Every structure is written in C-alpha cells, then in structure tokens.
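Structure ticket #2291
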Amino acid sequence: MKLLVFSDLHGNAYAFRAALAQMAEEHADQWYFLGDVFGYYYGQAECFHRLEELSSLTCLRGNHEELALDALAGKVDAEELVRRYGSSYRHLKELPDEVWTFVRSWSDGAELVADGLCIGFFHGTPDRPTQGRLYPDKDAVPVEAYQKYDVVFLGHTHHKMMKSCGRTKIYNPGSLGQQRDGQGCSYIVYDTVTRDCAWRIVDYDVQPLLQEIRVKDPGLQEKLCDPLLRYRGRWQPYVEKECVGDGGQR
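Resolution: structure written out below.
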C-alpha cells in the first residue's frame, strides 16, 4: 500500500495548489493530513475546500484546530491569537458552518494495520497527540508510547525527520505550508510493502503570499515571511538517532 502523508498547511493555499497537482501523480492508496490548517496565512477556506474534495483522506486535528475551535466558542481571546499567529484568526466567523462540522469530525490520532505493520499518525506525539513536539535532535520519550507501533508519522514541528526508536521508525513529513528547516515545503510517500519512505519537495511561487503578508500583517512580516524565504537547498535525510532506553521492545 502506498501512503501519502502531509501536515501543517497553515492557510498556504499557494503551496497546497502546487502540491495537489504533484500529489495526484503519486497514485497513493491512502492520504493522511496530520493537522493545522489554521494560523499564519490566509487561504484556510480554500485549503478546507480542497481537503474535502479528496477521497481516501484521513484528517487529524492539530493544535491550531483546537485554538480555532476554542476561539469560536469564546474560550480564548481571538485577538491574542491574531497577535501571535496573524490576522487570519480574525476571520474565523466568516468560515461556513460546514467547515466547522468538518473540523469537529477530525480525530486526535489514527492507526493503520497494513502489510504486517502497525502504523500510528499524530499531529504531535503519541502521548500528546495535538500538543507534543519531537524535533530531529531530541529523543523519542516516553519510549513505550512509540514502541506500540512499527511506524509513526508526526507533524507539528515543521521539520522533516527520520528517527528510530528501537524497531520503531518515526517520520515527519515537514510542513507543506510553512517550512522551517530551510529545505522546502514537503510531504512523504511511504510504501508499506517495501518500507521505503521518500520526501517530496513542492516548488511554488511564494511572491503572492509575501505580498499578502505585507498588506494584511505588516507588523508580523519577520515572523510570517522569514520561514518562507529561509531555503538552503533540498533536504537530505538526517543520520538516524536511536532513542535512549529503548531496549528494542515494543
């Protein structure tokens, strides 16, 4: 089975449009979106529409979906979210009801058993599904949370990652909307038969989005523009780093 895994769109409809044309050529059997449509950029309505059009897609809730739902319910101050993450949070109530119904249907995690593999999917980490962060230079702890699975896919950090925890392989596709590792917006294609994992870089014209930021969030240009412009070349997989105390047990 061929899986396509992507994460952290953050309203970047420009990148998502370009990615979808590329993704269609992968002919994947199952697609997984690891969460975070909200925050930072302004095409969240288009992103939701395009997600809804995809078949064989599982969507997971990210921390920004939780923030958006809390803001809509008046549990958090939407203007504080605007100060932290940009003016897209000012327009939540303009989104149609079907978007909120769609988001509320997303779960915090997913599992798949295929070709002898137990695979877990999370925005954050298995123990903290929407809030946890595992960076490439950190250990996967608690170990037992990961070793329940043969393969785990994580998002949230916007950093591409390949890591081992005993016999468990851990992958992060990076962000499709706001790369932060300097090596491009990206997604993963994973083959459950061959166990091959490949990162695909998505090229798109970033200038229209930069112009939107200058108009809509002039006070946040450094925070919103810099990740889009920080590019050091196409990604090469990191040297795998074993987690501590794994013992090879799951």
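Closing remark: Residues 13-24 form the longest helix (12 residues).
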